[in-house]
Amino acid sequence: MTTPFINVAFPDAVARGATGGPSFLTDIVTLGSGEEQRNVCWEQAKCKFNIGTGIRTRAQMAAVIAHFRVAMGRAYSFPFKDWADYDATDQQMVSSTTTVFQLVKRYSLGGGQHVRTITKPVNGSVVIKVNGSIVTPASIDYLTGLVTFSASPAATPTATFQFSVPVRFDMDHLPIQVENYDQQTVSQIDLVEVPE
Fold this sequence. Notes:
- The chain contains two helices and 19 strands.
- The protein is mainly beta.
- The protein has two domains: 1-84 and 165-196, no CATH class; 87-163.
């Protein structure tokens, strides 16, 4: 089943002031000895954001209301710029076939690595290289992050790009308090990443 998606980016000015980031789900069982047993429920992180902290003007509130109405609350997902993590440089791509490759971002720490699949690269930001030279692929799908070549590349391609996070509102009701004509406040408006 395809997740309903509207390809209209959330307002950057509001996204810049949002709070949030990646989250995992881990079940922790404390044993009788006091030791812990940890069970990882999610292999991939899901980002969560509170955009209420990013709304500073009446115009920004109006933009959020418009986005909420078009997205129909939790019904549709849309691209969101996570200002703390929105780009990648020279990332080795993952092959789907000999001519189709997926954009990914790798996070490394010591000997460990986490590979994040990127499905929403920013249109026009993707630069592909093979053996260090810029190449033009047959196509780049900006809704899946798949890059297709007309023939198998001579080496595994790398990509430099910016990307958005597919998110949805985590509520079907938008709680707005109007204090006066020019000032509206919200306690919290949550967005959650939609796994794709």
